[in-house]
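Sample pair:
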Amino acid sequence: MSSTSQPVADPPYRTVAVLLEQHRRRTPEKPAIVDVDDRKSISFEELAGVVDGIGRQLLRRGIKKGERVVLAGTEGLDKLLLWLGIWRIGAVVCPLDVSFVRPAIARTLIDTIAPALVLAPANGDDSICAVTDGPVTRFAAWSSTGADEAAPETLRLDSDDRDDVALPEGATASAPGDIASMCCTSGTTGMPKIVVYDHACYWLNSLDSIDLLGLNVDDRALEYRSFDWYSAQILSLMPFLQLGSTLYVARRFSMSRFADWIKSHRVTVSAGVPTVLNMLLEAPVDTRDGTFATLRAMTCSTAPLSPVQWARFEKHYGIRILNLYGSSEAGWMCGNRTQRRRIGTVGYPVAHIEFDIVDPDGVSCGPDVEGQVVVSGPKLALGLLCADGTIKPIRGAPLFTRDVAARDADGFVRMAARMDDLIIRGGVKIVPQEIEDAMLGHPDVQDVAALGVPDPVYGQESVCFVVPHPGTAPDAEELRAYCRAHLPREKWPKHVYLVASLPRNARSKILRDELRQQWWQIVNTARDLPECE
C-alpha cells in the first residue's frame, strides 16, 4: 500500500492536564477559548483551574476513569470546558445532539453507550430526560465573574478550589490507548453509527491538522460547526490544545456576523463547508475595508466542493481554500496545503496514514484511474460500538471506504463519488459530481444534485434537482441543453427539476434518499415540479 513518509519526530502524547499546565505557565493571561456568541473569553490560567474543578466535581459524583459521560444540549465554550474536564479524569466523552435525531433513535444510542452520567444545561429543555432512564446532571454556564447561584446538585463550571477529592496525576490521567470518546455519525444512510476513538486518534489527527493548515501558537482559529463532529474536534479543538493557540467558537454559522467575527477578532484560519462558501458567494461581503485581511486560509470539508465554486470564491475574496478529505472512521486522509494546492482535488495524503486507491481485485490503480479508497494506520478509529456493548474493530486492518477516487501523476487526489451514489447507466458508471460540476457552470444555477433513478431500458438514468439563483428563472430544457454542450451523451440528465432548496443534513451532506422520494412523488403525480423530457 502506498503512503506518504512519516514525520521525522512527532511530539510525544501529553494529557490535557500536562498541556494546560504548560500553557498556563507560559501564557497565563492569553485568551484560550473565546465564545463569540456570548462574548465570553477564558484565559489559560482560568481554563486550567476550571478544568480541574470540573474534574473534581465529576469524581465526587462517582465518575471513574474509563466511564462514559454523555454531553447533551450544549455547544460553545461550556461544551469545551466540560469536554476537557471529562478528559482530565480519564473518562470518556460522548457528545449527543438529541434534537438532531428522532427520540427513539436517541434512546437507542444512549442505551448502547450506557453512560455513567448525562450532562445537560441547567436552562435547557427536558428532551434528554425523555430518552434516558439514567442519571442526568444539570450544569450552570461558565461566567468570568464566578458561578451564579444554582441548585446544590448542579455542576458548576468554576475553579472549585476544594481539594477534598484528589485528581489523578496529570501525566497519568490517560494514555494514548485509552478510549477518549464515542461519537455518533450523521446517519444519512440509516441508524447513526457510534464510532469509538482512543487518545492516539486525536493526537495523530491533530498533528495532521497542524501540518495541513500550517498552524502555530499565534493562530486564532474560528470554529462554528458542532463539536459533535469529529471534523471539528480534530481540526479545531485538538490543535488549540496541543499548541496553546486561541480558539474562537460559535454555535452555528451566521451570515450576518461572520465578517465581523473575522475582522474584530483578527481570525487567521476558519473552518468551512461548501454550503458556507456558497452562501458567501450568493451574498458577497464587502472586503474593501480589509475585512478578511488577517484570514490566510479557510478549510472546506465534510461534503464535496465544486471546482467552479472554489475558483469563484478565491477570485472574489482572495482567500486560500484548503479542501480536505476525511471520514469519521479514519480522520484526515488527504488535504491541500497552503503552499501546495490543486483546485478540484482534496490534496494529497496526510502523514499519519497509509493511503491507496485500488481496483476491484485490490491492485493499486495507476495515475488518473478511478478506484476504491483504502486506508490503514494508527490513527484510524478503534471501532464501532455495537448494541451488545462490544466494539467491532476498525483499526488493525485495511479500511475499505465507500469512496471512489483517482490520483494524478503528482499525487493529488480527485474524489469521484460514494460508491453508493454512482449512477450505472447501461453498464457505464457515472459520477454524480461530474454532472453537478457541469451544471454549476451555468450562471443561473446556485446549487444542484444529480442522482440515479430506475429506468426500464438502461437500468438507471440520471436526473438533476437544480436550485436557481434568486431572481433568475432558468428553463429546464435550457439547462439540459447546457449539459449537452458540456457532457458526453451518456451523462446527459434525462430530467431536470427546479426546486427551492436541496435537502441537507446539519453537516451539509445532500440527503439523496429524500431526493429519491421527491422523484417518486413527481413520477407518480406528474405535477409537483416543472420538468423537461
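The chain is about 25% helix and 25% strand.
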